[in-house]
Structure formats: C-alpha cells, structure tokens
Design goal:
The chain has 455 residues and is an all-alpha fold. It is 76% helix and 1% strand. α3 (37-57) packs across α14 (265-295) and α5 (67-89) packs across α7. The chain crosses the membrane at residues 27-46, 66-87, 94-111, 117-136, 215-232, 275-295, 307-326, 338-362, 392-413, 419-440.
Length: 455
C-alpha cells in the first residue's frame, strides 16, 4: 500500500491521508464526481412533472399523488445502507457505477410502463431509478467531501451540489417541452372525456413520458463508460503498520457502526434535521406547479412548469451566494439567516391569496441553496472515528425518506382543508425547525470555537 501511495503522489499529485481525506484535490476526478450530481437532480424534477401528469390521467387525489415521492425516496431509504456496504467492501467508484446501472434499468422500465399504462407500473420504474440514485448519492456526497483536505470538505460538497440545480432545470425543461409540450392544460382537456375515449387519450399522454428518458439514457451510458476507464482515489481511512506501510483501516461491522452512531447525539440530531429538510424541499417543489394552477386555473400545465424553472434558477443562485458567504463568515451563522428568510417566504406562500404566493414559493428555493450539503457535512463531522464514515454517510442519505413522508402529510392537509395554498403551512413549520437547529449550532460554536472544523 505504501508503493501505491507514493505512486499516487508522483503520478497524480495527491497523497492519501490516514483519515481518508487527500493532501490535495484531484481536479479531474473531482469534476467527474461532481457531474454525477445533476443526474439525480434531473430525475427529481421530472417527478414534479410526472405528479401533475399522473394526477389527471389516473384521476388521483393529492394524497395519492404523493406515492410518486414515496416510491422515489423510499428507494433511497431502503438502499442507502446496502450501498454503503458496497463502498466498504469495494470502493466509491464501484458504488457509483452500480448506481448508474440501476438508473439505466429504471429509465428503461418507463418504456414497458407506458404501454401497461398503470400507476403501479410507473411507481416500479421510479423505484428502480431511486435504487440507482441511492447508490449515486450515498457514494458521491461523501466522496466529494473526501476528495481533498478536510478543512475544505463542506466547501467541496457545496460546490458539487451547486450543479444539482442545473440537472433540475434540465429535467424540468425536458418535461415542459417533451411531456407538456403541445398538451396545454391536460386536466381541462380530459375533464369532459369519459369511458374509452378518456382511457385512450390518457394512454396517449403517458407515451409522452418516454421522451425525456431517452436523452437521459444516453448521458448515463456515457458516464458509465467514463467511470469504467478513469482511475479514482480510494479516499478511505488508513492506518500505518509496524513496518511503516499504509493499509486500509480495519472495517467495523455494520452493527458496530450503527451502535456507535446511535450513541452519537450530535449525529442523530443532524440526521433528523436532514430528514426534515428533505421533506421540506420535496414538498415545496412537488406542490408549486399545482399551487400555480390552483390560484390561476387559466394558465396551462406547460406555463405552470415554468415556475419550477424559476425555482431551480433561484436555488442555483442561492447556492452560489451562500458559497461566498460561507467562505467569509460562519457557516452555521449563514444558514441561520437563510433558514429564517425561508420561513418568512413560506408564510407569505400560505397566507397571500394571489400569485404573489407562487413567487414567494419560488423565493423559498433561493434559501434552499446551502441547506442539504451543509447539514450533510456538518452531521458527518460529528463522526470522529472515520472508519464509520461510509455507513454514516448512508444513514444521512436515508434521511431522504423525509421526501416521501412530508409531501404525504401536506397532501393530506390539502385534502382535509380543501386548500392547496393553506397546506404550505407544513413546509413552513419544517423550515422553522431547521432555523432553530442552526441557531443552536451557531450558539454552541460561538461558545466552543475550537470545535469548528469547517474553516
């Protein structure tokens, strides 16, 4: 292993450190990993299009449409731990390639799903995609943070995560022009259709869902080939033997790691906060299109989807500006400000009875910018015994199950209250909790500056 370390330093310019981080960031490999991030963004934003499509074609209520997100984030939850075991036994690179393969399988399942034309078959395809994305995110989030010096881990992941909105924008544009395209307002068109005519037209509309996945499949195949050919760092914790050789640190069993994490209160608090945030982000984006259609029924589905493009642009800009502030000032202090302003935006969303509410929901996406990656690395920093890193990263990714639960809660609130707009009180309460989390973390770090690892 010592020879491998010297070779890496000589040929590639980086040195593997004992805690799993690298002496410097390998730029090309870091860029390759970062290019994975937009891939799950595209899939997530297409879900928001599919929810609107499925609601009309399959005549679903708001609670039932949330099963799209349940299938999607349920896959993340179930597969994250197995993905971490693959990383521990093999490598981050192998886990990323495995994720790409499952993503390809899931996209391919949309073709038979569009012909079977049942809601459950589409949920199976979405679940298969989620399996792939769980591998990708479990590996890539942690891998990105490890590809360089430890003190820049939060900044590295935030930079990688800055590419996610570009994937979201791509996904929503594909949906807008390839799925909604020439349809207009689908619910208005199908409102007066009955029997065989409605079924036939619905099946025709479901065929449109195939279009964006054809292009995604091409990108996935190119990425799979690239990862197969390019050598990647291990970025795993190592230890020095008596003969001064470097070997990979003895890996604990899954039960040992879970026991360690269970007794780590800071880690558990971070995971719960990530759960709340995942639900908050997903539910705002899942219901923004329908909020616009609800407030202004005259606009088309395609026009309403444009609001999601604005949301992802706002998200992207929020990330860029947050990256600057976090490089200059306290990371937790920056997040307190962002989170509090997000709460205020959502209060406007569920209280103002006109299109200002939609623009306030869009503004909320700006404040989403630094949330996920900062909570992720802040929580991972609570794991001081780095042999538990891979599984700890997987547990944080499992918190994405919040994206399945919180939208379902908002859907139920919408159905019971009869007001889509009022249901945005659910994400407002979620954001309030996150504000309090960062506020108390900021206060703790001010009192204990020696514990701050991000600068």
């Amino acid at each position: 292993m010592q020879a491998t370390q010297v070779k890496n330093k000589k040929n590639h310019g980086w040195e593997q450190l004992s805690d799993g981080y690298l002496s410097k960031t390998p730029i090309f490999q870091y860029l390759m990993v970062s290019l994975i991030f937009p891939l799950w963004g595209a899939a997530a934003s297409l879900n928001d299009i599919l929810i609107t499509q499925f609601k009309t074609v399959f005549m679903l209520n708001d609670a039932a449409t949330a099963f799209v997100q349940s299938a999607f984030y349920g896959g993340y939850f179930l597969i994250a731990i197995p993905a971490s075991l693959v990383i521990k036994k093999a490598s981050y690179k192998f886990a990323i390639m495995t994720g790409l393969i499952f993503y390809i399988i899931g996209c391919s399942l949309f073709f038979p799903a569009s012909r079977v034309a049942t809601y459950s078959m589409f949920l199976v395809a979405i679940f298969a995609i989620a399996i792939g994305l769980s591998f990708l995110e479990t590996a890539s989030d942690t891998y990105s943070s490890m590809l360089g010096p430890k003190k820049f881990s939060t900044l590295r992941l935030n930079i990688s995560q800055t590419l996610v909105p570009l994937g979201d924008i791509t996904g929503i544009l594909l949906g807008k022009f390839l799925i909604f395209g020439a349809v207009g307002n689908l619910s208005a068109k199908m409102a007066h259709m009955h029997g065989a005519a409605r079924i036939a037209y619905g099946e025709q509309m479901l065929q449109l869902t195939l279009r964006p996945y054809k292009y995604i499949l091409i990108v996935l195949l190119v990425m799979l080939i690239a990862f197969a050919l390019v050598p990647m760092p291990q970025a795993k914790a190592t230890q020095v033997n008596a003969d001064n050789t470097m070997v990979e640190e003895k890996q604990p069993t899954l039960s040992e790691t879970l026991r360690y994490l269970w007794h780590n209160s800071g880690f558990k608090k971070g995971v719960f906060t990530q759960f709340i945030y995942a639900g908050l982000q997903t539910t705002v984006w899942s219901f923004t299109i329908r909020l616009a259609l609800n407030i202004n029924p005259k606009i088309t589905d395609s026009a309403a989807s444009t609001f999601m493009i604005y949301s992802y642009i706002a998200w992207f800009m929020g990330k860029l500006i947050a990256n600057y502030f976090m490089s200059k000032y306290s990371i937790t202090g920056t997040l307190v400000t962002y989170s509090l302003l997000g709460v205020l935006s959502l209060i406007v969303t569920f209280t103002v009875p006109n299109m200002i509410a939609v623009y306030a929901a869009i503004m909320t996406s700006f404040f989403f910018g630094p949330e996920w990656p900062t909570i992720y690395t802040h929580t991972l920093d609570q794991v001081h015994e780095k042999q538990h890193t891979e599984t700890a990263g997987a547990v944080i990714v499992m918190a994405l199950i919040g994206g399945a639960i919180v939208p379902a809660i908002q859907g139920i609130v919408s159905d019971l209250s009869g007001s889509m707009q009022f249901s945005f009180v659910v994400p407002a309460l979620c954001y309030l909790y996150i504000t309090l989390y960062f506020y108390f973390e900021y206060r703790y770090e001010k009192a204990h500056p020696q514990t701050v690892q991000e600068h």
